Structures are given as structure tokens and as C-alpha cells.
Amino acid sequence: MRVYLGPKPTDSLPPDRLRAWAKLDFLVTQPDYSGRARVYINNLQTGDENLAVRNALNMTAAELDAKVDAFLARGVFNQASLASEPINPNRDYVEKRLSQAQVSDLLAELDAAGKSFPPGSPRWLLGEGTPTSLEAAGKANPRWGEPHFRLAALLDVPLAKVSELQIAASLEPGKSEYWQALAKAQTAVGQDDAAAKSWASAEHAAPTPAEAERIHQARLAADDRKTDFVLAARKRSADEEAADLQRVKDAAAARLHATENEINQRLGPLDSKQPVAKWDEFERQTLIGKVTRIDCVGTAMKFTVQPSIGQGVALWMPDPKAFFASTQKTFTCGVPKQPIGVRIIHDTKADPKQGTAGEIRSIDTL
Question: Which of 3, 44, 73, 282 is at a distance of 20 to 30 A from 296, taking alpha carbons?
Fold first, then answer.
């Protein structure tokens, strides 16, 4: 048996439908591609045309579109014949006997023209809209995705919602709204990679280019909302960490102040009758002379200075290391080879035990 494919009048279809028809006509009637058209159509059920073109035709979708555009521009659509086996009623049709009640229900459904359905039928169960009736409708017609789609809308468990929508989309992959709902549900549970694939399937299943563009923009908006959510969550986390750190600092400062107060209360007020002596309370004197001897007494130094007139004066330096820490001056204990000329400012805090007339406050070599 031969099946003949003839050209379609190009003025009877809108531009988008005309191009879709031209693609199928090109694949079926061109000898180089007719043998692989079936593979292409089967692969289209995945929702990814790029994959279908690559698997069936070993080219990209863009390359196929370019060939179809050139084919459509020529406007030459020849008739082609395809070999096909005739239908065998004994093999290709399965007889199924119906009860009189089932026949009556089918006739009643036809008479109702889709406005009412026999009780217990899949469409009647769908119309009930309860979880139980929707589950029953899905079992009554296992190839129908609508019961699963509606059931997902009634579920509160996110993963259960994803599961029902996956069933609906797999049963009817041409329903773009199923894929969109599935993509949103997958995003809600963190299945971002799966959601991206569902968005792509929704675009491919869109009935018109305008609807495909709308879905594409919805996907971009969803990605933007997700990015904003992630950034806001990161900011909240950073703010909470900063607040926790500040609470730790405040608590440590409070403990420190409490300890200070406890110590102050334990020590009591200072005795005003025995003030601590300060530098300003001693008379300051300047001595110019030559260092003739330096004695090291533990960590301290005792300088013997001979002024130009009068007797030598002994002065005390209790902590030479701290005194010379910020200067480049150094003095060695013992008798210098040559007396060292100095200008010294000292207080008058005499120390009879050490035999010194005061403590050195500054010293400059001359």
C-alpha cells in the first residue's frame, strides 16, 4: 500500500503554522532526511528540539532551520509517496465488549456535549475535585495528566506536589502549563537543575512563539527573585553574626566593669592624708658636668657627675632599660676612658641608702 503526501496550499496557514508545516514536509519528502523523520519526531517528545535534531539528523537546530527557510522560500512542494502496510482489522484492532450501562453512559456523555458526565466516570471524578476523586480519576485513565495536575494544587507537602506534577508532565508533555507548575514547585524545594530543564520543556511546549517568550521572561523573573532571596538571606546571616559578636563584646565589657567595681569597693577610697608623690612635687635641677663613674646596682645605675665647680654629685637611674628604650643613648658601667660631658635634669628626691641626690629625669651628652 502506498501513501501519497501532497503539497499544502501556502495561503491557508498563518506564518508560524506554515513554517512548522514546511519543516515536516521538508523532512518527510526530501530523500536525504525522510528515513530519519520518525526518529526526529520521537525525540521531540523529550521537549528538547536541539537534542532531537542532533540525534536524528546529526546537525544543530539552527542548521535545520536554515535548510527549512531555504526550502520554504523556494515554494516548490512536490508530492512524495511513502510505503505503508495496510491495516489488518484482526491484528490492529482489539475488540472490547461493553455492558449496556457503559454504552448508555457513553451515549449520555455525547448527548451532554461535555457539560455533564456519568457518575463514576473519569471526567465526573475530575469534576468532583477532591483528593480522593482525583486519585480515582488518575487510576481510571492512567494516561491522563489532568488529575495529577489538579491533585498537586491541593497538596501541602512540597515534595509530594513535585511528584504529582512530574507524573502529569510525563503523561502529557505537550502541556506547557504542567511544565511551568513543575518548574516552580522544583524551585521551591531547591531542585534548581531540574527546574531549569522543566522551564526549557515549558518553552518548547508553548503553542505560540509569543507564549514561549512569555514563559522565557517568567523564567528570568523567577531567577531574579531567587537571586534576590539568596542575597537577602546572606545579608540576614551577616547581620545576625555581627549582632552575636556585639553581644559577646558587650557581655565581656560588662563583666570587666563588674570586676573593676568589685575591686574598687574592696580597696575602699584613697587615703587623702598620704598622697602619692609626683614628679611635679619635687624641685627640678639642671646639672652640667662630666660623668666620671657609672655603678650598676642590680638593674639600676648610679651616675657620678663632676661639675665644673664644686664636689661630685651622685644621681640615681632606677630603670635604665626603660629610660633609654626610645633613644639611641647607651652607657656602660664602670669608669669611662674619657669623662663624658653631660647635661642632666634631675629631681631632688634624695636616697640616703644609695647616697644619691636625686633621680635622673633626662640626660643629654655634650
Answer: 282
pLDDT digits (tens, 9 = 90+) for 57-71: 889 989 999 999 998
* 178: nearest Cα among 156, 161, 159: 161
Which CATH number is associated with domain 282-365?
A: 2.40.50.140
Listed in sequence order, the residues at least 6 apart from 339 whose beta carbon sits closer than 8 Å to its beta carbon are 290, 291, 292, 306
Structural domain boundaries of the chain? 2-87, 282-365
With CA atoms as reference, report the closest residue to 149 among 159, 157, 140, 135.
135
**pLDDT tens digits, residue range 237-295?**
888 888 888 888 888 888 888 887 877 777 666 554 444 445 455 688 899 999 999 99
